[in-house]
Design brief:
By secondary structure, the protein is an alpha+beta fold. Among the domains are: 25 residues, no CATH class; 245 residues, Methanol Dehydrogenase, Chain A; 91 residues, Cytochrome Bc1 Complex, Chain D, domain 2, CATH 1.10.760.10. Helices cover 13% and strands 27% of the residues. It contains 9 helices and 37 strands. The longest helix is centred in the last third of the chain and has 25 residues. The structure holds calcium ion. Calcium ion (CA) binds next to loops.
Length: 713
Amino acid sequence: MKLSTWIVAVCAALALVGCKQGGSGPSAAPTSGVTDALIAAADGNEWLTYGRDYGEQRFSPLTQITDANVKDLGLAWFADLDTARGQEATPLMHDGVLYVSTAWSMVKAFDARTGQLKWSYDPKVPRETLVKACCDAVNRGVALYGDKVYVATLDGRLVALDQKTGNEVWSKVVVPDQENYTITGAPRAAKGKILIGSGGAEYRARGFIAAFDWQTGEEAWRFWTVPGDPAKGFENPAMERAAQTWGGEWWKLGGGGTVWDSITYDPATNLVFFGTGNAEPWNPAANGRAAAKQAEFGDNLYTSSIVAVNADTGEYAWHFQETPEDRWDYDSDAQITVADLTIDGEQKHVVLHAPKNGYFYVLDAKSGKFLSGTPWTDINWSTGIDPVTGRPSINPEARYEVTGKLWVSLPGAGGAHSWQPMSFSRQTGLMYIPANLAGFPYMAARDWEESEIGFQTGLDSAATAMPADAAFRQQNLDATTGALVAWDPVARKDAWRHTYLGPWNGGTLATAGNLVFQGSATEEFAAFNARTGAPLWTFPTQSGVIAAPMTYAIDGEQYVAVLAGWGGVWDVAPGVLSAKSGRPRNISRLLVFKLGGTATLPPAPALSKRVLDPPAVTGTPEQIARGADLFGRYCSVCHGDAAVAGALNPDLRYSGALNDANAIKAIVVDGALQHNGMVSFKVALTPADAEAIRQYVIKRANEDKALEGRSGA
Ligand code: CA
């Protein structure tokens, strides 16, 4: 027997955790702690992975809390968080401990019964990362595997922590560069590997998903979602084929197609399904990417698609492109759910998907074969869908780069459904989808050129900015709402829908107690009858809720947990809710409920409670003094004496742009926010002046933060 065979035999016999061949092979999957078998069993008492089970159904079998007694649900405990940006994570629960990630990719572990903090981890993401992230400093969750906790950070690292202590075991940069790529998604664990992708398709990014050894962090495989520079050769036949659907020199901008949210491992097929984002830039004429070489004109594979790869090797298995010729930012990144459904009397193992584009898809999980695609919300970009291939026909007017005209698309770039998780009840057979009902204006930029900073959309954003016309604005507000849609994927129609005042409400949780839970932008956490949609219970959360709830049980007592904390991409979009009901506040908290819970929140402040979170002071005294002078002369008329603003204009002490000198220069000197009324001051101020103003406001923000700390506020 040769030595190598010996080692393999010993490893197999002992099934040692992390046993290796020659020290460089892949680690065996864990055999204790959180294992593949434990995740697959999906016991209702624990919540072990982002979507609860491998199929990401978010349906809990727990039945203690029901439609009959949910009226008695009360707060068991809560924890204030130390960040004040969007909270998008789903907490995980294992062995009595609740693990949650927060904004800025921090992780906290709580005693799941009492709320006592066990440990806290801060990856210290540089705050200037915020200006490279399209959609706030959010994080959607951690993975648990073996004895570790995994978090992917905004600045592109994958970090393994010790479950017991929160101590860092390893940390690794997994993105190609930290200038254009950010990570907000939750890692997933399967077969000894940790899976993660990234965001960045609005910047200069080439989409990917990659798998890393759970023990060592060593990269096991990487699948690029779009082809790279042909001169360097293609990584695999899938890239070679995809290159036929691209034109121009697409690789210079990266191509996009980033995998920023959904990753679903399916044990039945041994495939990993993931959704890909938009091609880059949004406007396909801006860099000639649509001028493809062959029949698949401008499809730009594998963007705006679901792709399946082998879980062991990352090898391409199949793809289904939901939005060919994407020019509307119709990412297909939303959650991918796997379920077994009876369709036309036949049992099918299927993928269920509600991407941004407004169609609901049912695909065969093994082959990717199209089974159905049905509009479940207002759609105007497409006039129908081919019943055999699933390819949508495109409304010629929606090709705004061809018409040269303004096009207001439904759904908008925010998506009819974005990352907010949906849930699929095995009791009702319904999918509960958090829906955004809102359009978005597109107009092609003339003579567009790529830049080294900022969004690469190829759009004329100034031309599409909201006009200062009261009637127009009111019309827009009236047309922009949100809903909880209970969708029947077999009958292909609504069972019911609950309408909200605005878009960007929370993810959903379905339970065997005939309940659906959802938080809202209007600062409530609610329970609905899963069959009828009747509202049964609400709790005032004091902050907009965008995250999804989860549930667990300890010693027979069922808990429901959700993160409150308004933010994410919609906060930077025109303030629909602020105009309708007052801007949702950000009071970032973990809220945990049980029947008969009696904990109470402190009274909500009358106005938004915002936490000062400025970067450290780095300016020289001379620079800060000059900044103070310039601020008083040019800025204070709108932004307030000593940089303390009123209610109408931005309070610059809280501005995320303080983190980056380039952002302030772009605003102050280059007029980047001209469409918001912040015009260029370049006739008066130089880039050095803008930097002096930034340093002054940083100093003021730090002074006021110190005051807050002293008063215990
Ligand atoms: Ca996108």
